[in-house]
Amino acid sequence: MVQSWSISQAVDRLNRSILLPAIQREFVWxxxxxxxxxxxLMQDYPIGSFLVWHLNGDAAQDEMKYRFIQxxxxxxxxxxxxxxxxxxxxxEKIRGGDELELPSEQDLVLDGQQRLTAFFIGLKxxxxxxxxxxxxxxxxxxxxKRLYLNLLSGNDETFDEELGLTYEFAFRxxxxxxxxxxxxxxxxxxxxxxxxxxxxxxxxxxxIPEEKRWRAGMTLKKLHDAIHDSDVIQYHExxxxxxxxxxxxxxxxxx
Length: 255
Fold this sequence. Notes:
Helix content is 29%, strand content 21%. It has helices at residues 7-13, 31-42, 57-62, 96-99, 113-124, 199-204, 213-228, 243-252, and strands at 2-5, 18-21, 50-56, 65-66, 71-73, 105-111, 126-130, 142-150, 169-172, 184-186, 233-238. The chain has a 6-stranded mixed sheet with strand order 1-11-3-6-2-4. Strands 5, 7, 8, 9 and 10 form a 5-stranded mixed sheet that branches. The mean pLDDT is 93.
């Protein structure tokens, strides 16, 4: 049976009741792939189906699990300074003590890890990049960035011909400067918009020339609706406790 989550519902549950089984692969997407996924979302393109392994009680507790990456760093070799501790290149294993804090019902993602991690990083996390040719152990070589959307992009105009992008998403340092043709909106802020608020009123309060506020408001509304649309993530739920069956399903899935 096909079920669905909104993206906001899914990212809220990641690392709480939505987790990764030990058979999953690592997160391998780069920043361009994350940006293309968000652009596809804004263009109402399908983002593919998902497959979830639903477990209860002892079966859920006994299964080895890993966390989704929220704060991603491009390389596993990086500085040892404390500010890098939360940044991960590999998925973190859930230990026995942490298992006790998890709910009795859990959804383990068999197909959709890359896309869900991309949404997690874009909405609630960060992407840390190294300056080209710089030393990996040099803290100054790394920049932690969040995902932003230029609210003045879109409007059926192609922003990037090579990648086929209509909306200008970019990973940037906090509080990027704006210009006549750009207003950078932090994508994760859309999660904090109260459903009762009027999106056009929010856009009207932004520091954008009055003649461009309608366009910015329409882009912001598009983002808000896409993130909170309850039908965006459609998934099939596998309820078996037979691990061999699940492993066979996983092996047979197309890459």
